Automatic annotation (TrEMBL):
InterPro entries: ChlB/BchB/BchZ, Nase/OxRdtase_comp1. Residues 146-181 are annotated as: Disordered. One of its GO terms (molecular function) is oxidoreductase activity. Residues 150-181 have a biased composition (Low complexity). Residues 6-349 form the Nitrogenase/oxidoreductase component domain. Pfam families: Oxidored_nitro. SUPFAM superfamilies: Helical backbone' metal receptor. Coiled coil: none annotated. CDD domains: Oxidoreductase_nitrogenase (cd00316). This is Oxidoreductase/nitrogenase component 1.
Amino acid sequence: MDAGKYFGTFRACYGIKDAIILNHAPVGCNWGTMIYGTSQNLNDLRMSSSIMHEQEIVFGGENTLKETLISMDSNYDSVKNPLLVLLVGDIPSIIGDDVSGIIEDLDIEKDHIVINAEAFKGDAKKGYEDGLLNLYSLIPKNFDKEVKDNNNTNNNTNNNTNNNTNNNTNNNTNNNTNNTNNKSTNLINLIGVSIDDYKIEADLKEIKRILKEFNIEINCVISNCTYSEFLNSPNADLNVVIGQGFEFAKIMQKEHDIDYISVNYPYGIEGTKKFLKSIISKFENNAYFDEKAFELKYDSLVDYEPYKKVSVYMNGLYSVPVSVIGDHKAESMAEFLSQELGMDMEIVANYGDDYKQAVLSSYSTMIFGSSFEKGLSIDLDVPLIRYTYPVFDNVSLCDNIPYAGINGALCLVEDILNAALSRCGKFEFKM
């Protein structure tokens, strides 16, 4: 399953939570992006379409585009929705609509950007990368440099103060000063997380909770942030990329001297530990940069008692054959299932791979994937654990039932065990 470049670009842009999206494309593209984008929040409808029909395809869609632009700019408040993103699809690109000329002729009040997102020019991942790169062009002319300058001034002042203190105090005072510095907060951008990911709100809440325990805060989540947060993303000390958004991270490194690292999605207790250690390894001033301090802190956060209650059931998961299908999260999920639960990986595949027949021919007793794997689970008569985008046939309402992080590991194990136990056959009550 790969919806093409258009849908990937849409995800990158729709992740700016106060932006409005205008799809200049046939009505089907608008319908598709709406279904994908609002599957976990039906109230979050911030898009419209120029609704190209046969007439526009033959004679051009410039008139309907102009009317829709004027309508969206006036009907959406510029304070509440300060950014308008115009996505240009396949048909208007092929027939040569003069989109840039129309934009120049109109006096659009909001910040706005035009992005060519023809589906036939790449897959969804390329669309996401291109979408973020286009959005980056808004940062240089809008970035709040004063905030960055103030941060640098404060850092310089602190450094000078520390130097003077070090020169005029004894070793005990130096140690106290160093301990204070180690407690400073490190700021990161989390890149590659999307607003329409399954369980995204619960996962982000858990990730933020754990990071805060290690004196790390998230400056901006891309793509799940406000326009203001996006524009101020250069205030971060480090970019943490999860599966996608590498080109955005590279240009941030080049233009703003912000280093970046690539990490897996934090599934499981060990997976979360690796996630944290990778980030902390970039911050020598972090109090938990020391291996021993980190291990002591992390162990104090993990409660194994709930797992002991179902240890017999968990032993039954050992060597159970399963298949994992998904986007960049598939590898992380497979690692959790195999290394932490001891399950056997029959098939691990990414969207775009030809995996259907391989799964049907496997010994899989459970499938981990999206709503698109429902057909496979029905054909094999095995449970489907939905964990990755897109999910249409399940909702995630509670923000305290994540799949990511320490608490997420427990929630995942609970769902896996319940899915397995639900297949145990009939239970009859007889008087």
